[in-house]
Amino acid sequence: RFCIFPIFIFFFYRKSLGRSSVRSRMSLKSPKAYNSLPKGAVIWDPKPLQVKKIFEALKKGLNEYLEAHQAELDYLSGRHKDTKRNSRLSLPSLSPLQKQIRSVERYIRKLEFHISKVEELYEAYCIQCRLRDGATNMKHAFSLSPSTKASRESLVELYKNFQECTEDMCFIEGALEVHLGEFHVKMKGLVGFARLCPGDQYEVFVRLGRQKWRLKGKIETDDSQTWDEEEKIFIPNLHEKFEIKVTELRGLATILVGVVTCDSINFFTTKPQAIIVDITELGTIKLQLEVLW
Predict the structure, then answer these.
(1) Does residue 228 form part of some domain?
(2) From CA 222, how far away is CA 91, in angstroms rounded?
(3) Is the entire prediction scored with pTM above 0.90?
(4) Run of H or E including 226
(5) I need a surface site. Which of 233, 243, 258, 264 has the fewest CB within 10 A?
(6) Does residue 38 lie in a domain region?
(7) CB burial readout 6-42, b (16+ within 10 A) else e
(8) Residue 258, C-beta contacts closer than 8 angstroms, at least 6 positions apart
(9) What is the pLDDT of residues 41-94, one digit of tens each?
(10) 34 within domain boundaries
């Protein structure tokens, strides 16, 4: 009698898993959708909490862009009405103002589609996450029951379902990354008060996952700074944080100034974000960057 209830629940649960793979149902034909899933490798460690944070920040940022362009469209439409009211001539071709209105309308439609796609992906991700948690709970329930042939077969099936859900979650994470946009990172310079002297040379190394940016700078006699690069484009990643390392160059020797990490969740916004991070523990040298999404 002890085994009947878990087995009944399992067959009910297995019926709910009678589905084609998420990857076969989702219309993601672009090869960019596989950026985070290298050929021949599968990430078996999805991170639902991190994905939820990124999704909420991304959706908020996209809605900010949508509101800004909707306000621009309202302003242009008002100007167009005033122009038509004040003009007695009907122009045969589109005026520059009408072309601008149509351009903004097209961009708004693209944003709305982008938001709906992100929501669709996250909804599918949450479904797979719940199914995966259910498989985990059922595995635990069967482990407490006496071992029988039926229970062993059920455990094998549950393990298979658990793996499928995990793989589908990893796939959706890769598909979601395609919709994260770009981060344009600008170098604003080092701030160090008395620590920065004319002639000092520094190297800044910024990494986000596999993406790297290495640039060198020098403190000039007038306390200004020159850098061999000023801007770099990074593709956002669901799981990786910005890692920043600063070293001082002294001839052939290099001295580590400090290493810091910076989360990218706050960068999904319409306004440029200033980053000022303490490179040294006491904050005697700071690095200033600007991120535009």
Answers:
(1) yes
(2) 58
(3) no
(4) strand 225-227
(5) 233
(6) no
(7) bbebbeebeeeeeeeebeeebebeeeebeebbeeeee
(8) 245, 246, 278, 279, 280, 281, 285
(9) 445 689 999 999 999 999 999 999 999 999 999 999 888 777 776 665 555 555
(10) no
